């Protein structure tokens, strides 16, 4: 093997090693539910390097998968990251659908009702604005990493390719709908 082939081989091993051993982040969020996306945005805006792990191709969980409304009734009840989301939905409908009959419904006009596709698009847009947040779609947590009783990360698998990636961080958030990390971590739950 000549010197240039050796360098290519060493470079390839370095890349593969990075994939096999995963990346280190400040925060790992498992589950891109509305709460998971909110946690990733909040951590990213604090300058943290965030891995957001989602098994589906969508962000937002229930709000992007069919429950296209909120139970909030008063304008002042919405705050924080959800308020930003609501205002973006409101602006989208005002800019793109001003004559749509649905705009006669106040909850649609003010962004409390939205199409699931708009929710997914809006959340992806909000995440894309934060360069320190990286989304990993199509990944399932298969193992929780621990040091003593402290969770230090997760091992994930892509079901299509069956490849594993390890994500490590001082903060790991279980934002899955059913608390998928609880049994994997050996935590008591009911």
List keywords for this structure.
alpha/beta; 190 residues; 37% helix; four-stranded mixed beta sheet; 8 strands
What secondary-structure arrangement, pairings included, does this model have?
Layout: H1 3-21, E1 23-24, E2 27-30, H2 34-45, E3 50-54, H3 80-96, H4 106-109, H5 116-128, E4 133-137, E5 139-147, E6 150-158, E7 163-168, E8 171-174, H6 181-185
Parallel strand pairs: 1-7, 2-3, 2-8, 3-4
Antiparallel strand pairs: 5-6, 6-7
Instruction: Identify the strand order in the major beta sheet.
Output: 1-7-6-5
Q: Which outline best applies?
A: elongated
**SSE order in H/E notation?**
HEEHEHHHEEEEEH
Radius of gyration: 20 Å
* Strand proportion: 15-25%
Which residue ranges are poorly predicted, with pLDDT under 50 across at least 5 consecutive positions? 3-21
Question: Could you tell me how far the N terminus lies from the C terminus, measured between alpha carbons in angstroms?
Answer: 59 Å
Q: Give me the number of helical elements.
A: 6
Major sheet summary line: 4 strands, mixed
Mean pLDDT: 85
Structural class per helix/strand content? alpha/beta
Counted beta strands: 8
| Helicity level | 25-40%
């Amino acid at each position: 093997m000549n010197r240039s082939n050796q360098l290519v081989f060493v470079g390839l091993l370095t890349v593969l090693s990075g994939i096999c051993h995963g990346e280190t982040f400040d925060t790992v969020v498992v589950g891109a539910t509305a709460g998971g996306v909110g946690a990733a945005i909040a951590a990213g805006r604090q300058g943290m390097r965030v891995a957001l792990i989602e098994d589906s191709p969508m962000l937002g969980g229930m709000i992007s998968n069919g429950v296209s409304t909120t139970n909030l009734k008063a304008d002042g009840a919405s705050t924080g990251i959800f308020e930003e989301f609501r205002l973006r939905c409101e602006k989208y409908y005002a800019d793109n659908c001003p004559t749509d009959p649905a705009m006669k419904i106040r909850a649609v006009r003010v962004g409390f009702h939205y199409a699931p596709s708009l929710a997914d698009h809006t959340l992806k847009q909000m995440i894309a604005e934060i360069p320190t947040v990286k989304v990993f779609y199509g990944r399932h947590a298969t193992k929780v990493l621990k040091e003593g009783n402290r969770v230090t990360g997760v091992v994930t698998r892509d079901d299509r390719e069956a490849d594993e990636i390890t994500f490590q961080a001082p903060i790991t958030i279980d934002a899955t709908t059913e608390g998928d990390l609880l049994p994997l971590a050996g935590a008591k739950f009911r």
